């Protein structure tokens, strides 16, 4: 063994650790303390440098040194200007930017917001990555597979960046959205794959961030906001033919479901002022948009308190048998009020909304959906599981029984309604019995569309800190396959029952599989395919004139065959939403449609 008798202790008292002269200064009082003359001279020299050096106002652009009457100039209060950047540094100077969007519809809307901001600063948009000066990935963090897709893409872009000729402008790579907020240190410091990082609430800062990046440094802003809704930013919609558009009405989420990362990547719930939403929908109507989908992480918990007359002491109503993890908030203009006002703007514009929470479906919302012809009779009702035990572990705020009661209420108020849902297979602690209950729920409810995912644990979530991810990967996969199989089986039965019915279809364009076919979506948001041919004009027209069917037209389609994914038929005539509501009041109620979407595998 080593001789430790000569080892000194590594733990010292505060007095032992500090130099003796430092202690004398720290413990001085009114009595003078004598110090060595050379130490005194160094202190005097330092004080002189401090006294003659720059002061705070020297670092503030436009600051006045007049202490009695400070002058506040316009450039001092312009938050878009930064004293440490040249005047024109945030101008795009026709640099090209390419967006790649991953994940949910909220990310599509985020792309439109970010592009609106950069377009005003002089950037040009391109779809060719090889020609882009800036490549921005709008990312999703909801599951591990989604993040891995981004990591792989970043490595590809980095290799492309290194191969770019030195005679060209260096490519800048940025990550926006949820992944930016969640993985800041890994993206910027460990992998060093990025130039720019902007969280969901930092898109206004993109011009400055890109300016810093063009100067050769990394730039990031991932701060979350309690107020940001981008209410004054008009998104630049980029959908094919401009027939449909997403309109964000609120951001963030307060539900804190135990599996979900959204409250940590997008922040607290806040709603956009109703006046701003109505203005955007009016503009879209004037541009000829035929379908608007209102977006939010919990879209039907919308609550606008921006104006005093909206504020009251009445709490919002929840679906019967449902509860929240947070205290009910009083006052505000609610989702039913917003849906009412939006639906009145254009009777021939379809209105959808996603993604709602089952707890926020009071009868007044359901009655409005029933009464308005242009509000689609389709309700997305995320269940996540058919087991009350698993639902409790997920902190969903309802039981299987309460959920089924809500389904019955929706079907009673809105006959023939189409229902869609989300399900997670293999959540923490899920047993075979829990899984069988989920299968039976799918069979009982008969959804029209299902979004099915294998559980992927996320850091920061309640499940990560409190639960065990104890379902083996192969079991998750098997259960997921069984859920998909159940959806397909029920879809085939339900869609086959629609053969012979007539569906109102909004035409989207040419079918991907055949140039001879057109396709569109019915009220239940299911694809309908039919041959390209001229059809009769609206039934109110005189004569027997026919005309071609174009994207954006409403047509009545007779269904002749069906599968789990789509319906096929032939077009009967042109029509409109308002006309079909009077002539064919039951066209939506010929039965439910069914298809299945598979994600997260």
Compact description:
Helices cover 32% and strands 19% of the residues.
Task: Write out key terms for the chains shown.
single chain; 601 residues; alpha/beta; Rossmann fold; pyruvate-formate lyase- activating enzyme; OB fold (Dihydrolipoamide Acetyltransferase, E2P); 6-stranded parallel sheet; 5-stranded mixed beta barrel; 19 helices; 24 strands; globular; 4Fe-4S; Mitochondrial tRNA methylthiotransferase CDK5RAP1; iron-sulfur; metal ion binding; tRNA-2-methylthio-N(6)-dimethylallyladenosine(37) synthase activity
Report on the architecture of this protein:
This protein has 601 residues and is of the alpha/beta class. The chain folds into three domains: 96-221, Rossmann fold (3-Layer(aba) Sandwich), CATH 3.40.50; 244-494, tm_1862 like domain (pyruvate-formate lyase- activating enzyme), CATH 3.80.30.20; 499-583, Nucleic acid-binding proteins (OB fold (Dihydrolipoamide Acetyltransferase, E2P), Beta Barrel), CATH 2.40.50. It is 32% helix and 19% strand. The strands form seven sheets. The protein has a six-stranded parallel sheet, sandwiched between helices. It has a five-stranded mixed β-barrel with strand order 17-18-19-23-22. Strands 14-15-16-24 form a four-stranded parallel sheet, with helices on one face. Helix 16 (432-445) packs parallel to helix 18. The longest helix is centred in the last third of the chain and has 24 residues, at 473-496. The protein is globular, with a radius of gyration of 30 Å. It starts with 13 loop residues before the first helix and ends with a strand. Residues 496-573 form the TRAM domain. GO terms for molecular function: 4 iron, 4 sulfur cluster binding; metal ion binding; tRNA-2-methylthio-N(6)-dimethylallyladenosine(37) synthase activity. Its cofactor is [4Fe-4S] cluster. It comes from Salmo salar.
